[in-house]
Specification:
The protein is an alpha+beta fold and 383 residues long. The protein has helices spanning 2-27, 38-47, 64-73, 107-125, 130-137, 156-165, 200-209, 217-233, 240-254, 276-282, 287-300, 354-359; strands spanning 56-59, 80-87, 95-101, 140-144, 147-152, 174-177, 256-257, 284-285, 305-312, 319-326, 329-333, 350-352, 363-365. Strand 10 (319-326) and strand 11 form a beta hairpin. The termini are far apart.
Length: 383
């Protein structure tokens, strides 16, 4: 009897051991592997897309690969074993990258970092190139084991499938949507804003006194063109609203947005692009060039105007626009975003309310520093 009991105990122990081994074996996370190189994986993704612009390639063998990881993605290159990045230049946001992590445990951190990259990248295009901004917002980050894919392309669902097929259909992934907006808004103090090599006070003083002897060469050129525009576009019988509209339309028809803003290095921004020199002389400017030019004209025409600094879509990319006061009431004007890349000039942001800007989910600013625009009398189409 005792022998039977001992045998039953032994059998029970053996079954327990086998059960434990079975549990460990089948619950342990299986390593995700593929015979394909990162470049082959990206090639498969690219071939799945029907519309892609010309893309530049950076592999882990290139010196700039480490720079790209640290400067643009903000990823510590030591955490990456291998990878390849394909990106578009200019006013094109398409980008596809596959990174192989040294340690799969870092996948969550890398996902978070790349999510931030996509949010900031969307902010660069926001307003200036709406179609490209929308493309970035649809981007996804897919993680499969130690493989991470950054997908900014027209058909992310197809791209995701192409990526996973490189590991076999049985592989599963964890992904996140990158359209989540951050509540952390970058605040900007207007008092710190200065326009390099452009002195608005001197230009206005020369305009009123008709004495240009003290102006720099740059300021003198700016004033000369501004005077010609006022003489051509402004009539004595015009109301302040009509003057404002005439200047707004002249700027959006005369100037174009400076594409160098989208350069990844940030070092190719044209000199004067953030001042009236860019708009009036070079006929190309970034948002600060548009807003400072509009304000200069309003000041010359004695129409009360201020400049507002904020960030588009809560991203860290700085943006600026204006507010004008007509018949004692304030209106918001964003001349730069009324001159979109790849489209015709519009009046989408001409004399709108602060609420309109907020509800658009794009303009973000410290509203405690500026007046609230609530009037609609002089909104475009109402007057």
């Amino acid at each position: 009897m005792k022998k039977v009991q001992i045998c039953m105990v032994i059998v029970f122990i053996i079954l327990m051991i086998l059960g434990i081994v079975f549990f460990i074996t089948h619950t342990q996370k299986q390593s995700v592997e593929t015979d394909m190189t990162p470049n082959e994986i990206v090639t498969a993704i690219i071939e799945s897309q029907t519309e892609l612009p010309s893309l530049n390639q950076i592999t882990s063998e290139n010196e700039e690969f480490v720079t790209y990881l640290s400067d643009y993605y903000l990823i510590d290159s030591k955490t990456i074993e291998n990878g390849v990045i394909y990106y578009a230049d200019g006013v094109e946001a398409s980008e596809i990258a596959v990174l192989i992590l040294r340690d799969e445990k870092n996948s969550g951190t890398i996902k978070t970092i790349l999510t931030g990259y996509i949010q900031n990248r969307a902010g660069i295009f926001e307003g200036y190139a709406p179609k490209q901004a929308a493309l970035v917002k649809k981007g996804e980050i897919i993680v499969n084991g130690k493989y991470v894919a950054l997908l900014i392309c027209k058909d992310t669902d197809v791209a995701k499938t192409a990526f996973l097929n490189c590991f076999g259909e049985s592989q599963k992934s964890s992904s996140i949507s990158t359209t989540t907006k951050s509540d952390n808004i970058s605040k900007t103090d207007n008092s710190n804003k200065i326009d390099s090599e452009y002195d608005s006070t001197s230009v206005l003083k020369a305009w009123k006194s008709e004495d240009t002897s003290f102006l720099s060469k740059t300021d003198s050129e700016i004033l000369e063109v501004a005077k010609k525009v006022i003489n051509q576009e402004i009539k004595d019988n015009m109301t302040d609203y009509e003057k404002e509209l005439a200047i707004h339309d002249w700027i959006t028809n005369w100037s174009s947005f400076d594409y160098s803003v989208f350069d990844r290095s940030g070092n190719n921004l044209k000199e004067g692009s953030d001042t009236p020199y860019g708009v009036l002389i070079e006929r190309e400017a970034m948002c600060h060039g548009y807003s400072s030019t509009f304000k200069l004209f309003m000041d010359m025409l004695d129409i009360e105007c201020i400049t507002v600094f904020g960030t588009p879509n809560s991203n860290g990319v700085e943006h600026s626009w204006n507010m004008v006061k007509l018949d004692g009431e304030w209106y918001c004007v964003d001349v730069a975003w009324d001159d979109p890349i790849g489209g015709s000039p519009t009046h989408t942001y001409f004399n709108v309310t602060s609420k309109y800007l907020r509800n658009s989910g794009i303009h973000k600013w410290n509203d405690s520093n500026v007046p609230e625009a609530t009037a609609t009398t002089y909104a475009f189409g109402n007057h």
